[in-house]
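Worked Example 4.2. Read the sequence first, then its structure tokens.
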Amino acid sequence: MNSGNANLAADHVIYIDKKERVKNYWSLRSSDFSAQRLRELASPLAERWIEEICSRIPSGRRLHILDVGTGTGFFAFLMDQLGHDVTGVDLTPDMIREARASAALLKSRAEFLVMDAETLSYPDECFDVILTRNLTWTLPHPQKAYAEWYRVLKKGGILINFDANYGKEDYTGSREELPKNHAHKQIEYCLLQECERIKNQMEISYHARPAWDVELLEKAGFAAIELDLTISSRIYQEIDEFYNPTPLFLIRAEKR
């Protein structure tokens, strides 16, 4: 990384490669992010996430699950605990290093690989389920990612995407309503500014979501697309360090 890229507070920094900018941002956040996700695994939210996911995927058999944009492995660990075969992939090597360290600590069988969500290194039709959380807002080409995810899903396979319309938010504004230990209050202001710059570079930030996502999923070939706009009220029942002030949406889609 050159000195220009490291200076996140400089408004004049121009990144030719948007993905390099995303990697740099999450690399800087990887250690604190990992610690928070481990705490979340031990919180009541873990069971809530499991309930939401398991109510939307096949039961009674071991599934081959891909957690795309796994970060430090939160969803991968939850699904591994339930006995599924899970692989977590992420663009940021530092995130994957943290995920592997957490896997060793938790004695998890989940596998973690560095991989681009828009260009997966897998053959066609090899996963039963794809999970993703807070990823698509960071993708320069979400339409390419949706097509890739369709490709690697088996027929009858299911995509579950948890995301939010983060492009409409401004995280450099007031955060007084959040508790002192909340991630948004722990992040350096220059990183919050960088998050804003990343969002402003992404086309997805300028579309009405999740309606735009549904259009992309239909073009990719997905069917039986379902939306849930009330997911946040069930997951984030307390305003604590895990609370997400931006309402989440859930998209479930099938490969027919």
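Now turn to a second chain, presented in exactly the same format:
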Amino acid sequence: MDVLKRVPVKEQEPQVRAANFEEVCLGYTKEEAMEEAARCINCKNAQCVKGCPVGIDIPAFIQQIKEGDIEKSYQVIAESSALPAVCGRVCPQESQCEGKCIRGIKGEPVSIGKLERFAADWSMENGIKPQPAAEKNGRKVAVIGSGPAGLTCAGDLARLGYDVTIFEALHEAGGVLVYGIPEFRLPKERVVAKEVENVKSLGVKIETNVVIGKAATIDELMEQEGFEAVFIGSGAGLPKFMGIPGEQANGVFSANEFLTRNNLMKSFKDYDTPISEGKKVVVVGGGNVAMDAARTALRLGAEVHIVYRRSEAELPARVEEVHHAKEEGIIFDLLQNPKEILVDENGWVKGIRIIKMELGEPDESGRRRPVEVAGSEYEIECDTVIMSLGTSPNPLISSTTDGLDINRWQCIVAQEENGQTSKPGVFAGGDAVTGAATVILAMGAGKAAAKGIHEYLAKK
């Protein structure tokens, strides 16, 4: 065994997976997981833990895998994370726990994410549940949104004995885990639904098809329904557009609309789903959501281009996602930017006008600013354009809640350490506060808010 190199993880072949919605990564066997776990040197001052937004005791859970006790490994993870099978698949471990792994200094870091996924999957397959919650204390807390922030906050509060109800606007619990991330990255029935059931097993109640701000306001929940505290984890589902000519044409989607239709209407199961009959699709953007949209469109039968205004070095998407997209045949048109969407006489997309870019001086983000190259415009023929330019929070909750401060991006203002907002008893976290970010950062915010709510209610 070469301790400097990871145990490789099996994947579907690119040409096979590009035509199906089955999971790309096949995961470790028990033998492979134990071999990879043996590479961990069990640091006393574990830097990997410092890189984990939810503070999982990583050396401890890996040690249990090394010893072959997978159930105990899962229980170690479950003490800190409500969604280990999700995190093992979609967290950017390379910039968090694995990015700080000491083993990575002279070799490849331990595959922490794949080991977490293995322990969680094994436990689900063998019917293992999280440790039961504390006895109920009779105090009610409402959670708005059943995405990663809401599920984490609810699970932590339930463990502490609170009577927690999650209110979800859509008909299925899971938030972005269900409607935003494609099936081939995160299986819905096999993974997400079971993780949600684990949270419910702690005593958390979930009410779906309840739009807070319409069916009831936060003030009504607190004043009429007896909830002593509320956590807002409603995410950021309001898409951004460029404001260029032609964006109102038929065949133009936001990435979150495209992915939501695909996931909730189950086109990945060969349902007759009215998403798009696009044969040549252009995705504008370079983040993880852009990769998800592009790879989904490819699986629906399209030729797909990703248009991004910076170079590959500045792509915000995970390296693994970019690698997978390239393997599958996605075409990357880098250092290019849309100027206009071309529309036919019937109002449908027929192409997109592009201008080439070059990198200038760094902007406020520290990345070199893209600058247009004069006289470099050209056209790409296409019938579908998917805009993946980020999202912001829907203002419905903030506009119907008295005393709740928001910033100029419509994000709720909350304290980072505990999620407390300007309104007493109301806490917030995840994308509703930060704007679009990662699943694990939303979970970290939900965990911090649960602690904040517990401390707040202890003083009442």
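Notes for the reader: The CA atoms of residues 42 and 227 lie 43 Å apart. The chain is about 35% helix and 15% strand.
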